[in-house]
Amino acid sequence: MTHPHCYGGSTVPNEPVAVTCKVCGGHVHEFLDLGRQPLSDAFREPESVAPEFFFRLAVGRCESCTMVQLTESVPREKMFHEDYPYHSSGSAVMRAHFATVARRFLDTELAVPDPFIVEMGCNDGVMLATINQAGVRHLGFEPSNGVAEAARAQGIRVRTAFFEEETAARVRAQEGPAQVIYAANTMCHIPYPESIFRGVDALLAPDGVFVFEDPYLGDLVAKTSFDQIYDEHFFLFSGHSVRAMAEHYGFQLVDVDRLAVHGGEVRYTLARAGARVPSAAVAGLLAEEDASGLSDLTTLRRFGDSVLRVRDDLVALLRRLRAEGSLVVAYGATAKSATVTNFCGIGPELVSYVCDSTPAKQHRITPGKHIPVRPPTAFRDPYPDYALLFAWNHADEIMAKEEEFRRRGGQWISYVPDVRVL
Ligand code: SAM
Ligand code: TMP
Ligand code: ZN
């Protein structure tokens, strides 16, 4: 059955639609419907009257390969374009994280004569900056030209293009094979893995590695962090589903690392089938997932029930605080928060404004619910009574920066893993 994309005020059907897996073609069983949602990074001019794009955000699990995925994908050009507002370098913790990733590659896979590394979704160059400083040959693929320009301004080589079969093959022909193809928080954004793997196959050196890190389904379920589900996060990976995807395309999962960043991620290392011996960590992660029943529909349905509980608790708390006359604002106009505000029905009547350090988001309004976005200076003038932490994955960094808020009696509100005033 085809499913219409919806614009403006039109409604969307709530019936699950028959969907096939973007990896293996198996049947995708829907387990959670998060309703009508806008583009998570489409921050609007307050005076804009242009119709807003909406789609139905629902998530399901493939009955064959276990891949958890959205049941509807948004055209990629609607999400990734000149004005894509997310700048990876906005967090000091993430800058340090990616410098470590780069140094690790320099010390291992790239410690060969004339090494070459390709990154998909290099954004403003947060990882490639260290590679470039080391004088190592590199190329970033970044379709969002605004952030690509920020990388180029530092001397990083970036192609404004989507990584896919054709673009990757062209690079192979022009520049030779890459020892490393890397992607952070990008593979899960891509609902066309077949083209990606063909591109990787064309461009990767025979003994090269394809490494990607993305939010981990295990953390999502453990923390009820349903806000990791939005238009850009098409796939929610697990060790099992990534192993199945790798094998489907002639690759092998040879290593995994649990990462604390962005609320819990896994870094997956893939090599051509038979090229490397898988580490013990792979078997360890798979065994852990088997023991917890991570990929079982009952587990995923239970997760769905927890999501409804968090929604109800959060809305009840915000209504009570408002009724008491408290000033409640939010911190971090994250893409994730689009799911929270639109699914829970939280607008400016409950949260007066959101403070965010990203200039491209400031003085705009949030997608769907139209909450004003203000710079962090607005957070201090006046300090609110409560601050809802939308950027909960950057909690330590933000709370340290805004210590004075607490000293003056302000309180943070978190909804991960459950709703609480901190
Ligand atoms: N790697 C950075 C990080 O981890 O902070 C940026 C992540 S950002 C959430 C995802 C990026 O992937 C965006 O900058 C987007 O433009 C880019 N992107 C989306 N599809 C892509 C594709 N097919 N090839 C290369 N980049 C892509
Ligand atoms: P992310 O969770 O997708 O990385 O988005 C984090 C958002 O929070 C991004 O819009 C930048 C914003 N932010 C701040 O406003 N202040 C900060 O200190 C940090 C780390 C992020
Ligand atoms: Zn599948």
Automatic annotation (TrEMBL):
Keywords: Methyltransferase, Transferase. Transmembrane segments: none annotated. The keyword Transferase applies. One of its GO terms (molecular function) is methyltransferase activity. InterPro entries: Methyltransf_Zn-bd_dom_put, Methyltransf_Zn-bd_dom_put_sf, MeTrfase_14, SAM-dependent_MTases_sf. It comes from the Bacteria. Pfam families: Methyltransf_13 (PF08421), Methyltransf_14 (PF08484), Methyltransf_23 (PF13489). Gene3D superfamilies: 6.10.250.3100, Methyltransferase, zinc-binding domain (6.20.50.110), NAD(P)-binding Rossmann-like Domain (3.40.50.720), Vaccinia Virus protein VP39 (3.40.50.150). Residues 21-80 form the Methyltransferase putative zinc binding domain. SUPFAM superfamilies: S-adenosyl-L-methionine-dependent methyltransferases. This is SAM-dependent methyltransferase.
